[in-house]
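Worked problem 6 (solution included).
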Amino acid sequence: MRKAANLSRSQVRKALDLISNGHSFVVTSHVNPEGDAIGSMIAMALLLEGLGKKVVMAMQDPIPAIYGFLPAIDRVLHPPIHGTFDTAVVVDCEGISRVGTVSPVVTSAPALLSIDHHPAEAQFGDVDIRDTSAAAVGEIITELLQIWGIPITPSMAECLLTALMVDTGAFRYSNVTPRALRTAATLMEHGASITRVISCVFESKPASSVRLMGRALSAMQVEHNGGITYSTLSRDDFAAAGAADNETDGIVNHLLTVSGARASILFRESADGIRVSLRSRNGVDVNRVARMFGGGGHVRAAGCTLPPPMQNAVATVVAELARELDRVPPSQDSSAPSPSHCSRDAC
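Solution. The predicted structure is:
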């Protein structure tokens, strides 16, 4: 077995043993899925099927239409999920609560493998492969395939490149490393098309998504001497744009492109409260802010959910974020944009 540079060698070996011993698998990821969750989940399913395993993919929430080009996307099931499985594989999740209504089939499986790049306070799963230095879970899975000596098929490569590109914003964000670029090159060598991923994911938004972004950008507010930009989306905004809840992708990052902004926030009304997405430049820890409200994520990409009304949520979060900006001198900031996603449902 090739040495794993940034992964626990014992966990990598245990993961392969767990996969080898399993026969029926359920593979899932977090609620409100995005490219890393979706691409990594499908790649794992294809990997397992290539080993002769019985596999079901399941997610609580609908998959955004921009990922419709991915192989096997039409096989992803939504609860209720029928049947039992001897092994569950969860990707891009720091805890069982993140899989939502898929959790009953996950917790009923005798064995659980978790693969993630988010920080976690405790081990999640019987085998927990966690690398917080990875730009995306797709990067970790690519390395696992190489370590295990399992061939990377063109379909797997396309899923994994999608995962990597979404979490790096097509290699524009501050989490891009030489390791991430080498991973992308490997996946392209195995049949993935970077042009296809960019076209489908970044350049094929439905009109409703663009209208929704327009409403958010026109409502943008600037606070804390230009250091914070934020906007709000009400249910009326979604209705006027004809947009679904999962069509907010990229809005909070656009808010961060304002000159002088060190952090950005998008507040949006949902059935379970006010969902809050936070992004920042290097040095400003939005994960710290999100955790104050029961959320979390990464240092530069995090989220949480607050109770209504909207104006209270805005005032509370903006005030806490302002305190975080005061804690970090502007000189520590980087001009590189923040990662575009985290696994929190509000991110």
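Discussion: The mean pLDDT is 93.
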